[in-house]
User: Which sequence fits this backbone?
């Protein structure tokens, strides 16, 4: 689904360049993104199509499957880490602009200057200095600088990649950071986070950063892994099988991936690790150690709800979206594929039979029996009571769709007429 930014570690140099101009109307050689104008240059490779995804924020739409997964993960983190009076320790940032500098996306995370993940063929560059973020980790540095110790970063990320059932150039991630002081980590005063005199840039032979004490790293590793296994169980169930795999990220050391066994496959669901101390010190954070993780929402949602194709997340089709309308975000939902042929909608309004015993369910049954399999959805769009006569009328919006062909309006009218006749037969008066 998404390639992790797993890479060898060299030293990255930071560049803090500003190359966006004012908020005025874009000039010919400029691109306007979310209200800001950027100068084009030889690096510019974003397309109008990709720009059109900016600001869509489908992961924030109440009942979108990505939103359900987002809310479940946020709730889990809120519940797992609370202050003494029960309020959450973590802050959530889910509206950060996806336009970031190369410094944010790469340099601040120690990603080497010549690393392949920076290439024009992998990223959507606005110009030499700005790109659409390729991962949510791009915001780590700015939030550390702002003084935050426990936070989640949620949003859309952009990568140029193959396009198939599981790859799409826009997808969504949640990243987390948790910092701890010596006092928060240890009960014993004698222990310390740091190894005296060791260099932040080196790795010890135990696989940890040379500057960290082994006991600090082990306690952090324990909390991180406990947290993430707990999350996997919350999402996929207590019986889930999982395993930890050692990996490499430039921004964490040591680093791991969590794999869960699903549908006869080992599937990697997240990357995590102990944050590079140099990232913390570059951001002005001293005397603290941190863990971080990042995960992709699409992969989790596709497994949880058995959604077979990543493009479905962008569907505006109510045949897709309505399957995720639920009052309980934790309810088990299994996606049922809908036809790829277009929908056709017709409304039907009628006065209810005056004997008073007519319910919407009666109408649904009538429509289902008369309309057979062409009726995909029915929605009550108006319930009206006449102020003088007391008579009630209902208006239903019926969505028709054929599984094997495109329905014409004429086909639909025939069936719609039959439903109309059938409600007349139970005493309704069609308006
Ligand atoms: N940014 C990584 C990716 O997109 C995921 C990740 C790994 C995020 C480890 C982290 C982390 O914060 O600590 O593949």
Assistant:
């Amino acid at each position: 689904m998404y390639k992790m930014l797993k890479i060898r570690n060299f030293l990255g140099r930071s560049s803090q360049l500003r190359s966006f101009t004012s908020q005025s109307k874009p000039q010919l050689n400029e691109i306007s993104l979310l209200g800001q104008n950027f100068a084009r240059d030889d690096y510019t490779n974003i397309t109008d199509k990709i720009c059109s995804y900016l600001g869509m924020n489908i992961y924030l739409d109440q009942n979108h499957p990505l939103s359900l997964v987002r809310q479940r993960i946020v709730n889990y983190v809120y519940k797992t880490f609370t202050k003494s009076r029960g309020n959450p320790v973590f802050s959530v940032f889910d509206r950060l602009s996806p336009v970031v500098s190369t410094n944010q996306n790469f340099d601040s995370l120690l990603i080497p200057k010549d690393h392949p993940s920076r290439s024009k063929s992998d990223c959507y560059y606005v110009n030499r200095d700005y790109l659409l973020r390729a991962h949510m980790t791009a915001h780590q540095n700015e939030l550390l600088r702002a003084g935050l110790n426990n936070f989640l970063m949620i949003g859309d990320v952009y990568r140029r990649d193959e396009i198939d059932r599981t790859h799409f150039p826009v997808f969504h991630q949640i990243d987390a950071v948790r910092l701890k002081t010596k006092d928060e980590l240890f009960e014993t005063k004698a222990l310390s986070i740091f190894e005296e005199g060791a260099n932040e840039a080196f790795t010890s032979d135990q696989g940890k950063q040379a500057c960290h004490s082994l006991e600090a790293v082990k306690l952090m590793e324990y909390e991180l892994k406990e947290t993430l296994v707990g999350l996997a169980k919350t999402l996929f169930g207590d019986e889930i099988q999982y395993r930890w795999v050692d990996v490499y990220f430039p921004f964490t050391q040591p680093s791991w991936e969590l794999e869960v066994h699903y549908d006869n496959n080992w599937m990697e669901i997240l990357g995590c690790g102990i944050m590079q101390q140099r990232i913390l010190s570059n951001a002005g954070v001293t005397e603290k150690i941190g863990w971080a993780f990042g995960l992709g929402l699409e992969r989790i949602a596709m497994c949880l709800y058995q959604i077979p194709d990543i493009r479905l997340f962008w569907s505006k089709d109510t045949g897709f979206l309505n399957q995720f309308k639920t009052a309980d975000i934790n309810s088990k939902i299994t996606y049922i594929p809908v036809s790829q042929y277009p929908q056709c909608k017709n409304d039907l309004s009628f006065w209810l039979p005056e004997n008073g015993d007519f319910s919407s369910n009666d109408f649904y049954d009538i429509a289902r029996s008369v309309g057979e399999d062409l009726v995909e959805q029915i929605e009550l769009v108006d319930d009206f009571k006449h102020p003088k006569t007391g008579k009630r009328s209902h208006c239903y919006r019926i969505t028709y769709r054929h599984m094997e062909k495109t329905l014409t309006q004429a086909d639909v009218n025939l069936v719609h007429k039959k439903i109309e006749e059938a409600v007349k037969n139970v005493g309704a008066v069609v308006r």
